[in-house]
Amino acid sequence: MNSFKNFFHSLRRNTSGKRYLPFVDGIRFIAIMPVIILHASERLQRYSSEMQALSAWESELSYVVSRGAIGVLIFFTLSGFILSLPFAKQQNSFSYKTYLVKRLTRLEPPYIFWMTVFAIVLLFKEQLLLTDILGNYVASIFYVHNITFNEFSIINPVAWSLEVEIQYYLMAPFLAMVYFRQTNVRLRRILIILITLLFIINQHTLGWQYLPYKASILGQFQHFLVGLLMADIYVNAPKWYSKKSLLWDLIGLLSIVTLMFTWTEELGKSIVFMAAMIGLFSGALKGKIFCRVLTLSWVSIIGGMCYTIYLTHLALLELFYSFIGKIGYSSPYLLQLSISLLIAIPMVLLSSMIFYKYLEQPFMLKGAFETISGKLTAGFSRIKGRLFTKTSQL
Question: Which among 126, 197, 272, 320 has most CB atoms closer than 10 A?
């Protein structure tokens, strides 16, 4: 028990010397769990051919579960928040090259690893042509699958959001620098809200809320802008959110519910959705109970593993629910979902702990990529030397 406890606590996110913000990982937890439940429900209904027809209230429940997709949009807002923090703190030194290298060395190794594994599995499982797999694989690896094929990647469909992330990642520093160059705090916050509103209106005028634009920065830019605003508030308004209140706990909770029921392609609801996202992050900062929950050790640790969980959960759920489907049994939707989640969620989380520990966490340390590359190079050199020695002896 102590061994698992020590292992679990060793999973806490490493920030390479930067100040650790547990509430951020807490929000990541709130974002990733609904996504897991959503995809579990989808695969349950896909593979359980003997499931009883959904009653009226079960259909409503299934609809509520489908709202778990808002977790992806919360991730977008978090990215806007995190990437803006250094500029909100007015850190003078910035190197775009270093910024990009950090992305490549921190997130690319696990991404390329899992996309490669899934591509190989798909090649043998679905018996697709190598050329079809290779085309999808290359497009996914370079984050252009949505643009190239106008559809989600067949290798790992959830990777669509990572392509949107990288599109914002490339522009984020310039946007933040322009924003924080305005020294009038009230004016720049008013401007960012107005710009976000105008963008949403323009988005719906031009139809960017629909696919294929929806799977690009054009369909999701407003969420990142909200993150930029919240980064400004977090850094420059500590007196405001230091006064915690139960009222903001209520606002945070109501904001989550509002997000669930305003995630649509309608203009009015999209504007309300933006306001609710601000309410969620404000509640996370100012709520008494909400803030404590987000900073609970187990919540923040699981949230900190969200990248690995996000990359791997769909394949694990696909495997699990396809197995259930082969067994086949007839029971109500809620009963099947509840029982299956009692197995599926621990399976996803425990697997992700191992994957995170050995395939993602090593790359989070400063200079990790250089260290690992050096070890691999040294290892290959030793192997080459031994082979050369044996060859000479022959």
Answer: 320
